[in-house]
Amino acid sequence: MKQEYTLKFDPDAAKDLAKLPAEISRRIFKKIQDSKTDPLHYWLRLDGRTDHRLRIGDYRAIADIYSKESLIHITKIGHRKNMYENR
Fold first, then answer.
1. Each residue of 5-56: pLDDT tens digit?
2. Model's pTM, two decimal places?
3. Which CATH number belongs to the domain containing residue 14 in this structure?
4. How do beta strands 59-66 and 52-56 pair?
5. CA–CA separation, 44 vs 42, rounded Å?
């Protein structure tokens, strides 16, 4: 059986999630929760970067995944049009 990963939300990512409409926020949180058992199946590494992205419809979550620590550190959540600048 695979090790379930621990989720850690950056304070900014938690604020990003809280600002979204409740239905979208629930959907994003559920998808992140679902990814804990096999994160590399759900999360894709971003080109030329060390972090990963999770696609949830028009929204994205950005995270650093630490396999040795079994940790998914979510750093940013938002609409796809705003996600990749200033990083």
1. 999 999 999 999 999 999 999 999 999 999 999 998 999 999 888 999 999 9
2. 0.89
3. 3.30.2310.20
4. antiparallel
5. 7
